[in-house]
Amino acid sequence: MMKLHDGIKILATGAVALLLGLQVAGVAAADKDEASARAAPPPVVTYNPPLRGAPQTRVGAGTRGSGGAAVLQVLAPDHAGLTTVAQPTLYWYASTPGAARFEVALIDEEGIDPLLEVDAGDGKVAGIRHLNLGDYGVSLQPCVPYQWSVALVADADNRSSDLVASGVIERIEPEEGLSRRVENGSGTALVSIYASEGIWYDALHEISSQIAASPEDASLLAIRNSLLEQVGLQAVTGH
Fold first, then answer.
1. Distance (Å, whole) CA 226 – CA 194
2. pLDDT at 67
3. Whole-prediction pTM value?
4. Of 195, 169, 163, 170, nearest to 182 (Cα)?
5. How high is the mean pLDDT of the chain?
C-alpha cells in the first residue's frame, strides 16, 4: 500500500510538470504573438491627389557612364504637390554617390529671380537627401505655385553636364476640420491624414521624420515606399 508521503510526492511532481507545461505554452504563445506582430503588414496609407487637372510638373534626370546609370529625382508627385506649412522640407534622391555637389533652387510663378539658391552639400553619399526652407529663412506664400529644382553639379566649369530634377510645390491654408484632425493625429495615422487629403509634402516629411527617429522599423519604410510608388517613384523605394 502506497504510503502517504509517496502520494504527496507524486502529486507535487505532477504539479511541477503542469506548471512547467503552462510556462512553455505561455512562452510559445508569446513567441507566436511576437512573430505575428512582426509579420503584420504596415498600415495602408493612400495618397489622394488634389483634383486640379494640372499638367505633369515633375522632371527627373538620368545619365549613363562608365560607372553605370545615375538617377536624380525630386520626391514630388507629377503634379503640383501641396503643403500646409510655410517652410516645408524638400526631399530628393540620387542613386549613386560621386564627387559632385548638389544645388537646390526655388523660384516663384514669376520665374525671374530665384528665391533661393543654395549649395546643398556634396553627393558622396547615395540615397535620399533633404533641405528645410526654414534653415534659409524662406517662406512660401499661400496659393502660389513654386518650382523647385536640384542640380547635381559634376563639373562647375561645364554646367551643361549637370543632372537636374524638378517639381512644383504649393502652400494651402488647411480647412478647420483638417486642422483639428492633424492636431489630434500622431504616428502613421497622421501620415494617413495628410496623404488622404492630398497634402503630399507634409505626408512625406512626417513619415520620413518617423523613419529617422526609428530607422529599424521596417513598417515605416514600407509606408514611405508605398507613397513613392503611388506617384510613380518606384526607382526610389528601398532607400
1. 14
2. 46
3. 0.76
4. 195
5. 80
Q: To the nearest 10°, report the CA torsion of 147, 153, 158, 159.
A: 0
2 pLDDT band, cuts 50/70/90, is very low
Which residues, other chains included, contact 131 with Cβ-Cβ below 8 Å and sequence gap of 6+?
89, 90, 104, 118, 120
Higher pLDDT, 123 or 106: 106
Cα–Cα distance measured from residue 119 to residue 123, given in angstroms and rounded to the nearest whole number: 11
User: What pLDDT score does 121 carry?
Assistant: 80
